[in-house]
Every structure is written in C-alpha cells, then in structure tokens.
From TrEMBL:
<feature type="compositionally biased region" description="Basic and acidic residues">
    <location>
        <begin position="18"/>
        <end position="34"/>
    </location>
</feature>
<feature type="region of interest" description="Disordered">
    <location>
        <begin position="1"/>
        <end position="34"/>
    </location>
</feature>
<dbReference type="InterPro" id="IPR032563">
    <property type="entry name" value="DAMP1_SANT-like"/>
</dbReference>
<keyword id="KW-0156">Chromatin regulator</keyword>
<keyword id="KW-0804">Transcription</keyword>
<dbReference type="GO" id="GO:0032259">
    <property type="term" value="P:methylation"/>
</dbReference>
<feature type="region of interest" description="Disordered">
    <location>
        <begin position="363"/>
        <end position="439"/>
    </location>
</feature>
<dbReference type="GO" id="GO:0035267">
    <property type="term" value="C:NuA4 histone acetyltransferase complex"/>
</dbReference>
<dbReference type="InterPro" id="IPR001005">
    <property type="entry name" value="SANT/Myb"/>
</dbReference>
<keyword id="KW-0805">Transcription regulation</keyword>
<dbReference type="InterPro" id="IPR027109">
    <property type="entry name" value="Swc4/Dmap1"/>
</dbReference>
<keyword id="KW-0808">Transferase</keyword>
<keyword id="KW-0539">Nucleus</keyword>
<dbReference type="GO" id="GO:0006281">
    <property type="term" value="P:DNA repair"/>
</dbReference>
<dbReference type="GO" id="GO:0006338">
    <property type="term" value="P:chromatin remodeling"/>
</dbReference>
<feature type="domain" description="Myb-like">
    <location>
        <begin position="126"/>
        <end position="175"/>
    </location>
</feature>
<dbReference type="InterPro" id="IPR008468">
    <property type="entry name" value="DMAP1"/>
</dbReference>
Length: 439
C-alpha cells in the first residue's frame, strides 16, 4: 500500500511527461597558477579589489636564531635626582638586556632660572614692597614648578596675587640681565628687556575678561548691536569724507560755469543737486579701480546720470541721439569727447523731463477750461435745487390682487375717482383670527 492507495488515486502513469530542462553548460575556465583552489572558487576568477602587495614591502621577519624574551628588570631615570630605582618589563634579545638611559627621560624639560648674589641684590634688586627672603622663596618656587605661577601663588607663604609674583620675577630678571650685560645695546633684543611686564595692563585685561565671561546672552546681543552700529557710522563717515573730497576735485567745467554766472535758474540748481552726487560716487568707485578703460567709465557715468529715469525715458534719449546723428558710443572716446557726450545726454534728459511737465500742465489747463464751460450761470446745480430737498417719498399705489397701477392711469383718472376707489389694506395689519363665539 502506498500513498495513492490511501488517497484513492489511480495508479496510471502521468499522461504528460515532464521533460528535463537542459541546463546551459558552463564554460570551463582553467585555474591560473599560483592561486589555490579555495581562493579561486571564492573569487570566481575575478580581479581582486585590493591591489597586490609585493613581498618586498612586507615586514621582514627576524632571523630564526634570535631568541626574544620579556623580563622584569630595574631601571633609573636621569630626569630624577634622587636615583630612584623602579621596575618595568623589558624586551631582551638573546639574554642581553638593553643598556642606556630611560627612554622617556628626554621629555623632561626644565626652565633655566637665573641666580643672583647678595651683592647684586643689594645693588640692583632692592624693593621696598619685597624682602630678600620673599624674593628667594619666589625664585625657589619658580625653579621647582617651572614658572607655573598659579601653583606658585598657591604655595607662596604670604598673600600675593599672581600679577604681583609675575611682576617681581620679571623685574628682577630684567635688572640682572641689564646689570650683567656689557652694554645696554647687547641685551636690548631680549624680550624681557624689549617688552617689560606691565602689571596694570594685566590686571585690566583680566578684569575685562571676567566681565565678558560673566555676561548674559541678552547683554552679548546688545553689545553686538552697538558694535555693528558703530561700524556702520564709521563707514558712513568715511564714505562721506571721500565723496566730499572727490566732489571738490571732480565738479564738471560746465557746472562751474553755471555756478560762477550772474544768474542761476531753479532748474540748474535742481540739476546740480542730482548730477553732482551721482558723478562723485561714480568717480569714487572708479578711483578704487585705479586702472580702467575710458569707455567703461563713460558707461558708468551714463548709468549714474540716468538712474532716476525709467526704461522708456532712456529709450527716448537714445532715439533722440539717433535722430541727431550721434552715435550711442563715441568712436573716439577721448576725454573731451566723453565729457561732451555725457553733457549732451544730460541735456536731452532735462529736455524730456521739461516736455513731460509741459504736457502735464496743458492737461490741467484743459480740464479746468472744460469745467468752467459746463457750469453756465443759467443752469443751477443739482445740489441747489429746492424741489429735490423738499420732495417727499410717495410709494406707488397698487391695485387689487397686488397689481401695480401705471403712471399713465394715474394721470388719466380724475382726483374724485381716486378718492372713491377703495384703499388697499395696510400691509402692517394682520387679519383677525376667528374665535369660537363667532361660529
């Protein structure tokens, strides 16, 4: 009995034969020499991602005859003066321990502290605020702690600040250098002689630093705003001074002639107030370049002169130049030609502005004249009519069934007939409700 008997299936073979799918034959590749079979099976014959390392670049192995051991051996350091003996693990080759000084002794650096004698102290180093014992203790601590003045101030017996200890040490050091030097010029290049220690400046620096570190975020923001405003004011003053200097040296010749004339018209004054600052700022920006083409300078001056005008006005200026037969850019841009070209553009721009003002005034005059012709003395105004003020509102009469009576019917009907006609019920009154007694 098999599974088909249990499931009640017929034992006939399957009608459709399952054909085995033919697998594509893989191309057999030969394993290259020098590569193991396992490595070749993992890589599949592909090139390695990392470049190959030559054997010559690998770390050379030690000869097999050397025997390396690690031993717990004593050592001493030249950095210590008490000959303290300590122990550490040492690499020993063939039973021969290493010799020489401790490897970390070379990092022990000390400051050379100057020494003075009693005679030198009495002659050059006396100070009413310092005694000799305090000075000796200070130099002893400076040599012991390598000029770490914070530690020295903590270990100093009397109550002295860090600034006072620094001032005493550097003043003594400077006095000894000057006294021992053959001449003052020989030690003038020394930093302690060239730039002596300033105790008042150091105290003020630390006080300002403590104030800055103790500020809140709001105070820092306010200080930043004040500094930005001060910088803006300084920049504006500098720019105003430069513009004033350039304006005094760069006023056009035609402008000087207009100013020096007997009469100055208001239009010339307005032109001076608008043209001179633009020219001054443009010349100031050009002087910062130092080297520039005259055509570039002319373009900048033209842009400054027509900055307040619109695109239509600029196009009309160029159209006027073309009508006059003048090139938009001079062919020979000499200094005189550029000045005359710029002056012509300014005059055309002034002419166009005057034409606009004239058209505006003419339009105003025509509107005033038209208003005066329409208001004749025989035609009263609407606001002065008496009938409009005394007239009361009369609602339109409606007929029965809600039909509106036309105006023509009202005119044809006599006053008596209108009086005899029954009046329409008032819209404000409602019909009375029937009660039980009325039935």
């Amino acid at each position: 009995m098999d599974a088909k008997d249990i499931l009640g299936l017929p034992k006939t073979p399957l009608s459709i034969t399952q054909e085995k799918k033919s697998r594509p034959q893989k191309d057999s590749q030969r394993k290259p020499d020098g590569i193991s079979r396992e490595v070749y099976a993992l890589t599949g014959g592909l090139a390695p991602l990392m470049p190959a390392i030559e054997t010559s670049q690998l770390k050379k192995r030690l000869p097999s005859d050397e025997k390396i051991t690690w031993q717990w051996l004593p050592f001493t350091s030249s950095a210590r003066k008490d000959n303290l003996q300590l122990y550490h693990w040492v690499r020993v080759v063939n039973g021969v321990p290493p010799t020489g000084d401790y490897s970390f002794a070379k990092y022990n650096k000390s400051v050379d502290i100057i020494k003075y004698t009693d005679e030198e102290y009495e002659k050059h180093l006396t100070d009413p605020s310092w005694t000799k014992e305090e000075t000796d203790q200070l130099f002893e601590l400076c040599e012991r702690f390598d000029l770490r003045f914070i530690v020295i101030a903590d270990r100093f017996p009397s109550s002295r600040t860090v600034e006072e200890l620094k001032d005493r040490y550097y003043s003594v050091y400077r006095a000894i250098l000057i006294a021992r030097g053959p001449s003052t010029g020989d030690v003038s290049a020394n930093p302690l002689v060239k730039e002596p220690y300033n105790i008042s400046q150091e105290i003020e620096r630390k006080r300002a630093l403590s104030m800055v570190l103790s500020q809140t975020k709001q105070q820092e923001r306010k200080d930043a705003e004040v500094l930005a405003e001060a910088k803006r004011i300084a920049d504006s003053r500098m720019a105003a001074r430069s513009e004033l200097a350039v304006t005094s040296n760069a006023v056009p010749e035609g402008t000087e002639r207009e100013i020096s004339g007997d009469t100055i018209s208001p239009s010339n004054v307005q032109l001076l107030s608008t043209v001179v600052p633009d020219n001054a700022s443009t010349l100031a920006s050009l002087r910062m370049l130092r080297v520039y083409l005259r055509t570039y300078a002319l373009e900048q001056m033209v842009q400054a002169a027509s900055a307040s005008a619109g695109l239509r006005t600029i196009k009309r200026v160029e159209q006027t130049l073309q009508e006059l037969g003048v090139n938009l850019k001079p062919r020979v841009p000499t200094k005189a030609v550029c000045a005359e070209h710029l002056e012509l553009r300014k005059e055309i721009l002034t002419l166009l502005n005057l034409q606009k003002q004239l058209q505006y005034k003419e339009a105003e005059g025509s509107s005033v004249r038209e208003g005066s012709y329409s208001e004749t003395p025989g035609t009263p105004k609407r606001s002065h009519r008496v009938g409009d003020q005394d007239r009361t509102f009369i609602p339109d009469s409606t007929g029965f069934g809600g039909e509106r009576v036309g105006k023509r019917d009202q005119k044809r009907k006599a006053p008596g007939r209108l009086a005899e006609a029954p009046s329409s019920p008032a819209q404000s009154k409602r019909p009375r409700k029937l009660k039980a007694s009325d039935l």
